[in-house]
Amino acid sequence: MPVTIRIPTYLAAFAGGLNSLAIEGSPATVAEALESLWRGSPGLKDRILDEQGEVRQHINIFVGEEAIRFADGLSTKVPNGAEILVVPAVSGG
Amino acid sequence: MPSVRHVSAKKGDVIVLVGTMKGAFVLRSNAARKKWDVGGPYSIGSPVYAMAFDQRQGRHRIWWAQQSFRWGTVLCSSDDYGKTITEPEAYSVKFPPESKLTLKNIWQIALGRADDPDTLYCGVEPAALFESHDAGKSWTPVKGLLDHPHRDRWVPGGGGMCLHTIVPDPVDPKRMTIAISTAGTYRTDDGGATWQARNQGVRAEFLPDKYPEFGQCVHKIVQHPSKPGRLFLQNHWGLYRSDDAGNSWKDIANGVPSDFGFCMVIHPHDPDTVYIVPIESDEYRCTPEGKLRVYRTRNAGESWEPLTRGLPQKNAMETILRDSLAADTCDPAGIYFGTRSGKVYGSSDDGKSWQAILEGLPPVVCVRAALVGEGGKDSPRRRGGAEKRKVQAKRSTSRKAPARRAAKSRPRAGKR
Question: N or C: chain B end with fewer CB closer than 10 Å?
């Protein structure tokens, strides 16, 4: 089963209009899955990660229902067939 | 989401760019500057702290910084007053990994000298200066400032630790003055390799040593191209002039209700005429006595006069921020300012009288003005291949299918 990454509507413009992208291969970690994502949709990278390679402060990434912020960050393991969600945090004004 | 309108401008028109906390607007009028068409909003929902209009080489390119607390800050541009917008896939202004810094905001977009038409500068938060020598395609931080020995002792002001003012010298290509809150004024005389603090005589009211080498909270510096050795400075408490390119500063708060304020602009044709909007104090941060008054000096700060005709003189608790006052280059000059309460005022007679141009905007954080067609050569410059990645304006304003189609057509190849 391929790993799927779901992105918010705002970012779909940088992913060929798609909200859900299947990742080729078997990424072992979130970082590997995202690397694969950038290859197909380079415009997503700077919008999800800052220039130091960290997930932007007001973006949450989940593997299934687990927030990577409270797991191993970008090193969080990705099970076969997992769904990765990129979700804007509830913040701002 | 609001619907987006566009303006068109021709030679002889005047445009006013307005950056707000929820997007950018483009205002257009003819030379009379009485009736205004309003274009926008662009980058809906995003704070736009910096805008610029580049007419060099016949361009008519609007630049703006689209900030998002989620997605970061990206430089956008449009060559047709917002109808089509270039939002690059890869962000062009970013810190190198070894700096360990991350871009929070772009506070200033400044054009290089007229004889250096592909050069642009950005002042950013955390405080740094970026430069582009290929008309904004690629940007690099100015290392002499990024690695400045004072950096560890610079501290953020209320708005963050931002480099908000860039004054390239109109005569000496190696000289530039910049201002940082709160670090003060710095100048390079060697093209950015080294930077010296230039704060002698400028008060730091909030420090035990009131006149330190650096650490002042400068809010804005202006210069007239015909007198490059003279600078005017609006400080966080203090109003100053330098007659030696910033080596020393003299207090010129002569007859103003408060020497606290943010914004400052110089008259386009008279190097002795400067405009400010005094603010009562750094605690209150509103116009004194509930009166909205622009103050003007016509003698380089020897005296100041209030300009009030057409401006509310009762219950006007307004704040005009550091980049929210601008002038066009018409004669008589148009002077424009925007308020934190979302109003834009304009004068078409050097400030003698004012009218409300627009109300009900989000808080205004940036205003720029220009006479269209003042760019030099008539033939517009064409953009290169890498710049053809255009996102239709609808992309910013709607998330419907056409936007996705537009995005899909962008080439994938990434780095600029």
Answer: N
CB contact under 8 A, A14 and B414: no
- Residues in chain B closer than 8 A to A35 (CB atoms): none
* First-to-final CA distance of chain B: 31
Q: Which domains does chain A have, with CATH numbers?
A: 3-88 (3.10.20.30)
Residue B367: what pLDDT?
A: 98
> Is B74 close to A9, i.e. CB distance below 8 A?
no
Q: What is the pLDDT of residues A63-91, one digit of tens each?
A: 999 999 999 999 999 999 999 999 998 76
Look at B89 and A42 and tell me if their CB atoms are within 8 Å: yes
Write down the ipTM of this complex: 0.93
On chain B, the residues whose CB falls within 8 A of the CB of A14 are 89, 407
Write the DSSP assignment of B204-233 as a string of letters.
Answer: -TTSSSSS-SS-B-EEEEEEETTEEEEEEE
Judged by CB atoms closer than 8 Å, whether chains meet at B94 and A46 is answered as: yes
Q: What is the CA radius of gyration of chain B?
A: 20
- Return the percentage of chain A with pLDDT > 70, whole number: 97
Average pLDDT (B350-360) is 98
Residue B364 in contact with residue B324, Cβ under 8 Å? yes
Residue of B nearest to A17 (CA): B404
Q: What is the mean pLDDT of chain B?
A: 91
Q: Which domains does chain B possess? A: 14-408 (2.130.10.10)
Q: What is the distance between the alpha carbons of residues B203 and B318, in angstroms, rounded to a whole number?
A: 25
